[in-house]
Every structure is written in C-alpha cells, then in structure tokens.
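lol so apparently i was supposed to do this last week
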Amino acid sequence: MRSRQPLDHRAKIAEAVCPYCGVGCRLWAESAYGQVLRIKAVADAPANLGGICAKGATVHKTIDAPDRAVQPLLRASRERDLRPVSWTNAVDHVASRLAAIVERHGPDSVAFYGSGQLDSQSVYCAVKLFKGCLGTNNTDSNSRLCMATAVAAYRTSLGSDGPPTCYEDIDEAETILIIGSNMAEAHPVTFDRILAARKARPNLKLIVIDPRRTATADRADLHVTVLPGGDIALVNALAKLLCEQNDCDEAFIATHTHGFETYREALGRLDLEDLAAACGVAVSQLRELAALLGGGRRWLSFYCMGLGQSAVGMWKINSLINLHLLTGAIGRPGCGPFSLTGQPNAMGGREIGLLSHQLPGYRFVENPADRAEVENYWKRPAGSISSRPGLTAVEIFRALERGQLKAVWIAATNPLVSLPDLHHVRRGLDRAELVIVQDAFHPTETSQLADVVLPAASWGEREWTSTNSDRTVAYSEKLVDPPGAALPDWRIFCDVAKRLGYAGFDFQSAGEVWDEWIGLTAGRACEMRGMSHGRLIAEKHLQWPCPHAAHAGTKRLYTDKRFAHADGRAEFLYREHQPPREPPDHEFPLVLTTGRLYSHWHTLTRTSKVRQLNEREPEPYAQIHPELATQLQLTENDWAQVSSRRGTIRLKVRISDRVPPHLIFIPIHWGDLYAPGNAANYLTISVTGRVAKQPEFKYCAVSVERAPPESGALAAHGREALAL
Ligand code: SF4
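anyway here it is w/ iron/sulfur cluster bound
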C-alpha cells in the first residue's frame, strides 16, 4: 500500500501540535519503523496542560490509512480515469495548464482554495505564487466558512484582527460566557480546562447561550436557550440593562472608546420586552445574566460557529465586543472576547493573507502602500499585486459554475462536503476547465472530480508551524517520512512556481520559508520577527506579537488600553437585530441547524479511519424533538426525509428534547463517500454577509417527513466506505 524508504527502526520521540481543532494541543509522539506508535499529551504545553481528547489521542492511526494519496494522478480528459504520473509530469502539466488559462482569460480566471489545515509555510508559498506572481487575489480558505466574521469584527471593533485573550484567562475569570459554541464536543480540552477551573474556584460562573441543550450546556450554571438567530437581540438586551443600571465602566469608556453616546441612544430606543421576544429569553433571565457580567466582574467570552456562521455573524460578534467594552472587560486578566478557531492553523492563514482581501502581515489588497511593501519584499515589479479583492469561498464555486472562473487549485480541504448548497459546488467543479486537488487522502468527495491529484504529506510527515486560537505560534517536528511520492504542501507550490519561471521559491527547507515570511510582519500587529525558525525549534512556542529575539512573546493584547484603530480607541458599533435570511414558512416550517460532534472532525477524511471514533458516532442522523416525532409518527432510528429549497436528504432519526420542537440538528461530517446524497450541506443556504462573506450555515428552513423504505439501502452503502 505504501512504502517509507528506508524504514528506521530507531525509536524517535518528538513533539507536534494536534492537526485537528484550533485549541492547539501539543502532543508527544513516539515513532519507530517508520510509524508513529504512541501519542500522549505534553504535560506543560500552555494550550492543553496535559489534556488530550479522543481525536488527538488517535491521530497516528490516520496516517497509515489505505486511502493515502501516494502518487500524483492525472486525467487526460474528463471521460478518462486518473492515472499515476511522475512529479515532473504533474508539475509540468499544472504549470502549463495554469499558464495557458491565464494567458487566454487573464489572471482572475484562476483561483486557489486552501484551508486552516495548511501550515504557515504552505500558506505563504501559495499566497506568494497566486497574489504576488500570477496576479490574482482569488485565494480563499475554508476559514471563510468559520472565522471570516471574527476577523471582520475584531477589525471593525478593535482596529485589527487577533484575539486579545489567552488560555490563562480561564484561571482569572469570575464569569465565563460561552455563546454559539458546543465546546465540550468541538474544543473539548479547553472546555475541560474551564471545568477544572470551576472545580478549583467554585465561585466561577459558567453561562452557556445556545438554542440546543448541548453537552456544554449540561455543565453550565446557567443555560440560556436563545432562539436561533436571536443573539443580537439578546446581547443588546444585556447592554441595555447594564446601561440602565449604570453598571458600565465609565472611565474606560470615556478614555478608550468612541461611539458610546450613539450606541447608548440606540439601545435606549429599544423595548426590553421586544428584545426578550426576539431572542426568546425571559426578562427575568436577562436580568440574571446581566448581573453576572456587570459589577466590574472579570468576564471572558468564548464564541464560535454559532455566532459566526450567519449572514450577520460580524454584527453578532461586534455586539458581543460592545458588551466587553461597556464593562471594561478587555485587555486585563480574565477578560475579553475569545474566538475559538476550528482548525490548527486558521489563525496562520489570517496572518499570512490567504483570505481574498488580505496580504501578509494583516495587510490589505486595496491599500496601495500595503501592496507596494509586499511587492518590494518579494522583489516583484510594481503593480504585480492586483488591487481587486478576490473571490471568496462560495463565490469561487459560483464563478466556476458560471464559467467566469476556469481553474481552481484546492488544497487540504474538501469543499464538496463542507460548502453550503452542494449541488452548486458539484456543478462548479464539473464546469471547470482544470481542477487540481492537493490532499493527503484520495479519494475524497472533491478529489474524485479532479483533473490532477497532488499527494501531500500529512501530520507527522513534515515539520511545520501553526498559530492556534490564542495567538500561540508553535513548531511541530517531523516524525516519519511521507508515504510514496507525497511531499510537503509548501514544496509542491514552490515546484510549480519555479516551473512557471518565477524567482523567489528556491527554499531548501520549511525553516527558510518561515524566516522569509516573518520579515513581512515587521511593525505589524502580528509581529513575529522575534520568532525565528531556530528559536521556535528551541522554545517550541511563542505568542505574537514578539518583535525581537529577546522578547518573551505577548499573552494579552491591549493591556495598555491602546487599541489598533488609528486614534487608539475601540469602537462601539450598534447593531440591530436582523431576522434570518430564510425564515420558516408553510412549506418549510422548521429550522435546520448544523454542527460538530466530539468523535469526528470536518469531512471524515481522517476520523473515519479510527475504529474507536467510528464506533462512537458511526453514522449521520437528524436530531428532532419528541413532540415533532410524535406529530410525524417517527420513532428512534426511523428514516426521515429532510428537505429544504435546495435539496432532500434521508437520515436516521434520533429523538431528543435537547433540541426545541421547531429545530432540527444534523451533524456536518458525512459526505457522499460515507452517506451518498445525504450530506447536511445539500440543504444549507449559501447566502453570505456583505462584509465577511461567511455563509449562514446555522439557519435555514426545512421540512421533515417519514422517508420511503428504500432510504436504508442508501445509508448502508455509505457505511461500507467506513474503515470499521
Ligand atoms: Fe486535538 Fe482539539 Fe482534541 Fe486538542 S482538543 S487534542 S487540538 S482535537
């Protein structure tokens, strides 16, 4: 199946960051005979303090999977099968096809779609190739699906992207508010740390705001069952109460913010009962909640997809940041808004400019000075970088469908499961002239449609650098050689760039790439010049900003209360409650929300290979309330047909009062390889917000009915694909 040459019998102990969620747990790994044999948590790693979850503990079982991509594959035409080719042929083909398409249709006819799985070195090389050399800003990332709203909200409220907090704030907080996050399943090690902190300090109050009674809500001191889409109304109600009770940090507001009077006036015009109705929370509970945030308490908020995956996700996060500004709960221990990232290097992608409007070092393509600085640094001619923001995730696949975009290079992600409204994504890939898929696994739902498959080294098979949720930049060692002909992603980008004739890609190691990239952070908010590759190897991790070699890194941002806007003040941004884009109606009377499970991660390319994880969650399902089940005459494990305006899927029913009667919950992980035709994203809506362009995954209108009997056969076929 795969060969590692030569097999090394000597035991090797190394440390690497977990490749799953953005907690950034540091793992201790023992390898020998070319295989990773054992994984443990690193006891003194600041992100996990010895914690590990079932995914991290079994990650080594994924790297020897039978579906590892080990050889470049090429398809002569859409009617022909993919055939193995040499790297030379694959690189020649990719370079010549890209060059021909750019020459015929212009630079904006090609796009790159990457992910928070890519290490910083790979992101840097891809951005340099596409933005600096090919001249298109059509580069985006699956981080667009989860973190774009956080990026936009930090920038508009505080002046720059970058979570101001650190994990140690858990130990300092008096109140922890978790809103829009099922941390117990999606970021379990951080959640365990919160529970441990509460055990040590019983006065620590844990509030969970979620429409579902999740595993996270089970452990809360106060669970607030907000209506789906009601977050802004809820947060505005809390702000109104705090203002009316004069429970604000007036000195902080006067000295370090602007926009407060306009904000307070807008809140003053709102009716508390109306807000309570819009968010579905009783006024008495709103008062109880406000009391846990006011009074000068140190409070910390964790938020994730439940806020961000909305057409008004940026507004929701702005509203949450307003609450922190109102109470002065930012820039001091135990305080601040803390975005949980879904992937190990989603932050790295943000820092290096993978999103379509960005350039490295939190620069922007529309800013002439930013473009000139980057062009100079890359020794590219003036005007090489386009001033037009590129296409975002959803836009890339719609542009392929329209024929406006001709080629897409997809790396380390599986959009044919993870994007909303999948029928459009499939049509886009079908219509493309050239689809390049670079992945550690093949087949994936997406790679099956590729014209070229480029095999990438996986976790443990390369040295790499990543940034986790609290700005900790970490170095991970290589443990074993990659299988077959697989290569580190950054090297593949460099090989194609050199074949295209571009200078500046002669890197000999991941360390050389890293040391070039951090030069672009000089004087920037995410400054990393003090984190040379050599220092990271020695110290393993440092938090940015870290401007020089003697700097110890920075735990918290804004401790001097000087924010990143030009005048140093943070901005109150009043946001009005907005109804969801697709409310229920007589045809689709229920609401669908999607989410993650403890045992799985993203689109199953890794976790489906681990028996223990599959046994815990072997198949997709639709979770519905007992009242709805009775109404539809459904019992546990019956087959239900769930329909939206975009499609119909069939899943087994799980009946639970953890969801309210009007809400259906479906996990996101299963795609066509494992549940053919029944992925949750055949139903979801691809509407996005105007600024952040993040899709509204958490809310669309659906109907549910009993499924016809043949539905079972579909799912059984899907399960055969699992390596149980
Ligand atoms: Fe990996 Fe996240 Fe689990 Fe930590 S919490 S071991 S980073 S999946």
